[in-house]
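I am still getting used to backbone structure tokens and would like to learn alongside you. Would you supply a protein for us yourself, any chain you care to pick? Start from the sequence, derive the backbone structure tokens from it, and show both lines together. Go ahead whenever you are ready, and we will take it from there.
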Amino acid sequence: MKKLLSLAFAMCLPALTGCLIHTRKVPQPKMPSVVLSADAQQLVSNINKQYDSIQTLNATVDFQATVGGEKKGKITDYTSIRGYILLRKPEMLRVLGMLPVISTRAFDLASDGNTFKLWIPHENKAIVGTNAVTKPSTNALENMRPYIFFDSLLIHSIGPDDLLSLTTDTKTITDPKRKQLLVQPEYNLNVFRRDSQNSNLLIPVRIIHVDRTTLLPNGEDIYDKDGNIQTQAIYGPYQSFGSLRFPGTITIKRPLEEYQIVITFQKVTINLPLPDDQFQLKIPEGTKTQNLQ
């Protein structure tokens, strides 16, 4: 009897599988023609060399901001505006945004690395404060400090006391021109420091993502003191600005505060003299001033 049941089941199996299984084709991502290899020290050398080669940066850009997400229950996209970025090491920064059509200032931000001033002319408002947020605001954009730009525009050098690990990963991305799926192999250069209270504990500082088809960084995740990703910088395809290879876009994401800023670079010049007065902002008398901590 058991043999008969087994035989009957075997005879029915092809019919059952034909009804219960459905096969469909899926797009196959294209593999890159070249995948480069490097060890951790080579990647560190490349990153430090790029950072050390830039002392000042002067850029004409477009800004596009988005605020919101799952926690807020809505997403607000702001109109793209033209702007300018001035940067001088170690921490001098000036970011200027222009209103569309009329080309007057939408905002003007200046920082010396310790304090900052932000002037919003059309609201007759100014915000001044320290670069570090000690009392977070419910308004996500009020928590935006100059160091977020500075940390994202340039990948800071890796010091001799930093602890490293190197892993590999692959991502599937879409070619925006051909609409084709591409496999993007990358290195993840993990940077740690030792906990001051427990030398056996490693604290994550950042992860630098390096495209293995070019050995150029395509992103960086920066962690806060609690191990949360505080800032994500995503570097778009590199372009040539004179002799400089620099990302055509930099997307700055702040996942905890649910906002992002996409910076599209139209012109980039490095190592021109930028005197102190380029980073000084005088707030007009009569402007309502808010002090942030």
User: Anything to note?
Assistant: The longest strand covers residues 56-69.
